[in-house]
């Protein structure tokens, strides 16, 4: 009996399989790719094997290299949107994006869990049951604002893939010309010759745990398209735990943007994200300022913010 594509995708998730093991044809593998599954091929003595990677090994994006002189960067830092959940604060996200636009930000970095996904037993907490519909709703929201979005993988996206479904954020990148998806829990974005490291921390890890395992004070070594070099770390942006804060740890600037999911644990969370401004000179960060933006918090007059 032929297997369904979803069943095949479940078996192929981080697990190379032959066509015989999958009971699929080469044409059906091509069909999976056309549907949006990131199918990879692994050479083996027994013939080609096909799999869907849990994440890309080198998920990086170069926006711009170091400038000769000083420049000021402004961007939005957000995380854990959870679009599709009944607890998703859409009005709060729109307020944040509108404020980022008004303040002259060009980019918004989103460190994982952009959609709620699909966890067994949590169907009653979903406004949109299908993850692809959650991504379509998020597309409707993000498309309103003339910002460039860079998002990476979160554990809720992993759950979607384990269920054998297409990762809807790969489709979101196809629908939107101004959205870039990095298929990894940890990724590097190079901007003005510095690194914004986006990490969706799981397995109980903290910012301190990550920074102890990654010695970043002397820079971050990145490898993109066969080229390797070391850049200064502008900021480590962390998602997953829903807490917020902007602080220095081991000499590295850290931002935990918080979440736009409220009420799921019976506690009221002040949803929002950070607007960040940094002064950079020849690829070295000199000054950093951040402000938490929430629809529930009245902003101070501009002259009193610094």
Overview of this protein structure:
The protein is of the alpha/beta class and 306 residues long. 23% of the residues lie in helices and 30% in strands. The chain has 8 helices and 15 strands. It has helices spanning 5-12, 19-22, 26-35, 90-102, 131-142, 155-162, 168-175, 207-213, and strands at 40-42, 49-51, 60-62, 70-78, 107-110, 148-152, 179-182, 186-191, 194-200, 220-224, 227-239, 244-249, 252-257, 273-281, 284-293. The strands form 3 sheets. Strands 3, 8, 9, 10, 11, 12 and 13 form a 7-stranded mixed beta sheet that branches. A 6-stranded mixed beta sheet has the order 7-6-5-4-14-15. The radius of gyration is 20 Å and the shape is globular. The mean pLDDT is 91.
Roughly what percent helix?
10-25%
Helix and strand sequence: HHHEEEEHEHEHHEEEHEEEEEE
Radius of gyration: 20 Å
Q: Any idea what the shape is?
A: globular
The largest sheet is: 7 strands, mixed
Q: What's the helix count?
A: 8
Structural class designation: alpha/beta
Number of distinct beta strands: 15
Percent of sequence in beta strands: 25-35%
The N- to C-terminal Cα distance equals 67 Å
Low-confidence stretches: none
Mean pLDDT: 91
Task: Give a quick rundown of the structure.
The chain has helices at 5-12, 19-22, 26-35, 90-102, 131-142, 155-162, 168-175, 207-213; strands spanning 40-42, 49-51, 60-62, 70-78, 107-110, 148-152, 179-182, 186-191, 194-200, 220-224, 227-239, 244-249, 252-257, 273-281, 284-293. By secondary structure, it is α/β, with parallel strands linked by helices. Helix 5 packs parallel to helix 7 (168-175).
